[in-house]
Amino acid sequence: MESLRADIANSIGKASARHNHESFTKYNVEDGNFRTQKRMNKAQWKSVEGLGLSLYELFYREFKLENGSTLRVFQNRDQVDLVCLMDGAFPQAPEF
Fold first, then answer.
1. For residues 53 and 5, is the Cβ–Cβ distance under 8 A?
2. Is the pTM of this model over 0.70?
3. What separation in angstroms does the CA of 68 have from each of 1, 60, 63, 64?
4. DSSP conformation letters of 20-50
């Protein structure tokens, strides 16, 4: 657990050092992130939250493109890392 705490603190420190406060506030951008090899159990989740941190599951898929880049597609989010729509409109659910 100490290793997990150190990784979280390191990640948050790096992200905080380079963020832009205005956009981070407007879009509720995360202060840091970490990955686990397996889904955390309830005790682990509560232990991290006990450090005063909020956790969110942000699932995504990565697609390797022919030009060597990676396209990362996230699920819609309404709590943290909100979408910034620069132009156009969000897709709408089909009407039946």
1. no
2. no
3. 36, 19, 10, 7
4. -HHHHHHTT--S-----SSPPPHHHHHHHHT
